[in-house]
Each structure stands twice: as structure tokens, then as C-alpha cells.
Amino acid sequence: MSEIKRMKELVALLSQASKAYYQENREIMSNLEYDQLYDELIALEEKKGLVLTGSPTRQVGYEIVGALPKEAHNSRMLSLDKTKSREDLLAWLGEHKGLLSWKLDGLTLVLTYEDGVLIKGITRGNGIIGEVITNNVRVFDNVPLKINQKGTLVVRGEAVIKYSDFENINALLDEEEQYKNPRNLCSGTVRQLNNAITASRHVNFFAFQLVSGEGLKWDSKSEQLNWLGDLGFDVVPFKKVDHHNLLAELDVFEKEIMDNDFASDGLVLTFDSRAYSESLGVTSKFPRHSIAFKWQDEIKETHLKGVEWRASRTGLINPIALFDPVELEGTTVSRASLHNVSILKQLELGEGDIIKVYKANMIIPQVAGNLTRSNTLEIPKECPICKQTTEIKKVYDVEVLYCNNMACGAKKIKAFAHFVSRDAMNIDGMSEASIEKLVEMGLINTLSDIFELDQHKDLIVNMEGFGEKSYENLMAAIQTSKKVKLENLIYALGIPNVGLNNARLLSRYFDHNIDKIKDADVETLANIEGFGEIIAKSLYDYFHSPSNISVINALLNHIEIEEVEDNNKEQILKDKIFVITGNLETYVNRSALKDEIEALGGKVTGSVTGKTTYLINNDVTSTSGKNKKAKELGVSIINEMDYKKLIKEI
Ligand SMILES: NC(=O)c1ccc[n+]([C@@H]2O[C@H](COP(=O)([O-])OP(=O)(O)OC[C@H]3O[C@@H](n4cnc5c(N)ncnc54)[C@H](O)[C@@H]3O)[C@@H](O)[C@H]2O)c1
Ligand SMILES: [Zn+2]
Q: Which value does ipTM take for this structure?
């Protein structure tokens, strides 16, 4: 192929990948592959002295086509040049002072405050024009809505979702809607039209650059960031470095990445002096004041043992590569998701092939390539669960495998597996494999059948892999599980959008009384702090379906809901409903105050209604929406000190 032809091909391929990545929160290739093709294109552009139109080496991010309002940035938002070499990084810093921080892997935003009030949030977009997502920023977990600062303040930072939240949120989504990584999820979440969804997903914002504001009186970026921290922003964790300690600090970050709950795809090194930074100027795509350091992926070769096809609740059947165990970034890895049929086909896999594996962002195992490409692997024509014919469907431009059988046992098996899992009914000794057998034999059909398994002792004892002993153990585990906390039971039911945390909030709100939950209307449910309309609707629908009610009633014939004493503190705030707004002075954050109120028997909800007892707001005279509403409804507005008096006084 001629080099120009290859360049055209690369531009097309990379543009297609960028569109999927930035606009649709999908990935049609791994970042590793993207970066390799990108480097190949840069090398060709340099060699030929030619850049084709639309080359991704000249533009940032994505063109915006979505429904959100758009706005031009006051100053262009650029990407960052990168290196994987420690020596290059050292040379780049030279004799200067620098700041080394996590390169957070989320969505870059610019926030603007006027006279202390958050008035605007915009995404990076294509660097020139971004999307206005102010309403979504307002429901992030940690963005100050009001700060003690007159005039204009503009700050850039990254919106991210923790790995732990990512897993919880994904678990509640249907397989087809699941996100591949926290970055996709965050991008999808921050750009929601409905901010109730954003609110339920725990987005965090970490500031990394002060663009305008009084803090610029310091030339040092570390002073500026500390100043932002004092104003109430969470700032990206950073270290001051120079050529003496840079490499040692790199090692420290590299150790910490394993325990870091926020996804990061490397580090950013920037010169500490703003004046020096500005004197350096920019290239067409990068500022010269900063550089990204990407981890050298540890890539290992191993043999493919086969592909496991996993059917999901929704009928989607996903391929997982099984390979000879290898050590990667300190752990032993023997399986990696292949995501879909398209990726599987591209890799031309076959049993015994020598494949290359690595961990994306040092965390998620991935197959990077196939050296032997025997291409002998067959895509199953039958569903691994129900044995009915499968079908390959196209979702966007990606091929995925489906089981079309509506009654496919996979759905049932997953529901049972969830029901018995640790945070749910916690029935030990009931593996997915044994559930599969029990379903196959027709012994469990609805959830309550689990509690009647003792009627089938003979059949179970003779099941493959079972025996008298495992049967006895299983029965004992089932017996123990019968006394359960309401929150675990609710979680076990597998209600869409209701994870353990939501189940706990729900259960507490309704005094651990399932009848109260069954009777609640959408409005009451939506008002529970941390809930929104979607969760409320999901709960309401669930508890108003006759078939679900009969499932619950059948379960309640066997199990006993534990009485919960919230704790031994006096319930002095019983029946009091609080709403908290504005900045707090003596509590670290709202959830600290909320925890205390709940421990004292009170409740905290998200918005002021006729049922609210107190609105806690340190700015009692503010004319904010909540204050207005409280005044209209005659709800008392109290400040933190009043609250403290209240809990001592009553
Ligand atoms: N898999 C795919 O199909 C695909 C497609 C397109 C892009 N990509 C990936 O995206 C990369 C390019 O992405 P990009 O241009 O969005 O960003 P980048 O990787 O070049 O990162 C630069 C950005 O990181 C942000 N950032 C995060 N933490 C920061 C900190 N502490 N200090 C300063 N800035 C910080 C800033 O917004 C900065 O502009 C590629 O290398 C590739 O890995 C993948
Ligand atoms: Zn099936």
C-alpha cells in the first residue's frame, strides 16, 4: 500500500474511533491500538511533510452533534503531548520546578463563578466549542455551588466517577447499556439531558487549573491550586517536583495507582511557574507548558485456551478470552473480556494462539493482539444456556451475539445468582453452576422455591458434584439466610436501579417496614435524598406489579425481616425531616451531617415540601429556590448553630 493511501486509511479509522469515543461513549478499538495507529500517522505525516484534512493529529476531542446547548470557549482547550519515557520527562523538566499530578480519565470541564455563584459549566468539546452542562454540574457530589469569592473565577478540571461507583452503577444497567469503563460512564453521565440521572451517579470534579480569578496573583500553580482547595474545591492530588525527586515521585504514583479509586490514564507534569508556562506558547494541538506521562503498558505473551461465552440477563452473549495465567502489574491474570463479536473477529483467534495481553490503565485486562492468527474459533450457533439458536446483531457498527429466546434460562439463572449473593440473601454454597442445575431440573422456578428445596433432597443429593454433605451445608445456609435485613432483601429482588446503597436508604427512610415501601407514591420516593425520578419510578413500578407482589408474599412466608435498631443513640430527631443546602461550616460535607441526623432518627430529603420540618442553610437570608420554597410553605430555616442547639435542647 502506498504511504499516502495508508495515511488516508488511518485518518478515516482514527476519526471513526474518535467519533465513537467522544460522541457515543463507545470504543471500537482499545486505547492502546488507537495510540499505536495515531503514532503511525504522526510518523507518516512527518516523513511526507503532509497533513491530510481531518487529521486527528490537528484537532482535539469531538464535533458536537448532541441536543445540549453549545457555547464557544473563551480560550481554546487543548490536548496534551505525551511520552512514555521517564528520561524524556526528566529532560523536559530540565532545571525548572514542576507539578506532577494524576491525569484523570474522565471528561474535562470549565466552571465559571460570578460573585461566588456557580453560573456555568461547559465540556471541552472540540476545544473551541463545548456543551453547556451547568445543571448537571450542580448535582455533582463535590462541586461548591457557592464560594466566598467576588468577581469572576474560572477553573478547569476533570469530572470523574470512582471505580467503586462505576461497578455499582453498571450492575444496575441492562447489559446493553453498560459502560466499558468509568470514563465512558462519566462522559455519558455529565452529558445527560436529565440531571436526575447525573445526580444518582456520584460524579466528582477535580480542579487542575485556575484560568482566571484572584488566585492568579501567585505565579506558582501550586499556590493557585491550594487557594482553590481553600475555596472548597477538590483539587487533583499533586506533588511538587524538580529533577532531583521526579523519578522517585513517579514511582510513588505508580505504586498508588493500584489503590486509586479514580481512573487515571497516566500523570501530568506541568511547569509550576505560570509566567514561564505562558511564555512557551502552544503548538496546533498542545500547550508547551505541560506533558502527559503514560505508563508503559506491561504486555505479556500467553496462549489462548479458549473463549467462554457468557449469557446475560438481557440475552446478550459476551465472549471472554481464557488464557494461560500470566503476571500483569502485580497480579495473576487468566481471562479478559473480548467485548463483542467484532473485536473477536478482528483478532482472528483460535485455541492455542499466542496472544498479547495487558492491563488498560494498569487495571482492566485486555487482549492487545494475536501473533499467530489461526482464526479457527467458532461463534456458537446455540445459546450456552437454553441451546436455542443465536443471532448476530449489529448495534451501531459493532456486531454482538444474542440469544433470541425470551424464556432463556440465562435470565433466570442470573436473577437467582443475584438473589443468593453475599450482599443479598447471602446463601453460601449456591454457586451459579448449582443454580444452573437446579433450574435445569425444574427445582427452582420462582425465588421462593429456594426455601422449599428440602422437599427434593433425594434429587439434590444425587446431583453431579453434590452429595449428602454439600446438601446439608446448603440447607444450613438457607436456614441462616431466612433472617434478613430489609435492605438486603430489597437488594436481592433485583429491582432495576436499586443497588445495595439505595436499598439501604429506602429501608431506613421507611423505618425498615416493607409495607410502607409498598404503599409509597412516586413523589415520596423521589424525595428521598440521593434518589430521583428514575429510581422512584422503578421502585413504584416494581411494587405495583401483581406478579412481583406475589413473589414477595411467597418469600415472606419463609423469611423474617430483622428488626433494626439503628443504633443505641437516642432517637431525638424521630419524625423530623430535614433538607440541607448551601455550604457547611463545621461538618466536612453534607453526608457527615446527614449521617448524624439519621443516627438520631431524623430523615434527610432532597427538596423542600410541606412535610419538611427544617431547612438547614447557613445563609438564612439567601433568596435561593430552597429558601423561597421554605418561606412559602412556612418551613423553618435554621443554620448549623441552630441545628446544634436543637440536638442538645430537645
Ligand atoms: N479507544 C479509542 O477509540 C479512542 C478514540 C479517541 C481517543 N482515545 C484516547 O484518548 C486519548 C486522547 O485524548 P484527549 O485528547 O481527550 O486527552 P489526552 O489523553 O490528550 O489528555 C489531555 C487532557 O487530560 C485532561 N487532564 C486530566 N487530568 C489532568 C491534570 N491533572 N492536569 C491537566 N490536564 C488533565 C486535560 O483536559 C487535558 O486536555 C488518546 O491517547 C486515546 O488514548 C481513544
Ligand atoms: Zn438462551
A: 0.94
Within this chain, do residues 267 and 129 fall inside the same structural domain, yes or no? Answer: yes
Weakest-pLDDT range from 38-47, 500-509, 617-626 = 617-626
Would you say the CB of residue 197 lies under 6 angstroms from ligand 1?
Answer: no
| Predicted TM-score of the model (pTM) | 0.62
Joined together, the cell numbers standing for residue 12 give 478515516
Calculate the average pLDDT of the chain: 88
DSSP 474-532: HHHHHHHHTEE-HHHHHHHTT-TT--HHHHHHHHHHTTT-HHHHHH--HHHHHTBTT--
Same domain, 507 and 611: no
Does the Cβ of 45 fall within 6 Å of ligand 1? no
Please check whether residues 495 and 522 belong to one and the same domain.
Answer: yes
Position in ligand 1 atom list of the atom nearest CA 236: 31
Contact 241, 99 (CB under 8 A): yes
How confident is the model over 114-171, as pLDDT tens digits? Answer: 999 999 999 998 888 899 999 999 999 999 999 999 999 999 999 999 988 888 888 7
- Cβ of 402 closer than 6 Å to ligand 1, yes or no, is no
The rounded Å distance from CA 557 to ligand 2 centre is: 31
Cite the active site residues: 103
Residue 492 alpha carbon to ligand 2 centre in Å = 23
Domain that holds residue 637: 577-649
| Residue 118 and residue 179 in contact, taking contact as beta carbons nearer than 8 Å | no
Domains identified in the chain, total number: 6
Instruction: Say whether both 190 and 263 belong to one domain.
Output: yes
Binding-site residues for NAD(+), in ranges, read 79-80, 124, 158, 294
**Same domain for 102 and 229?**
yes
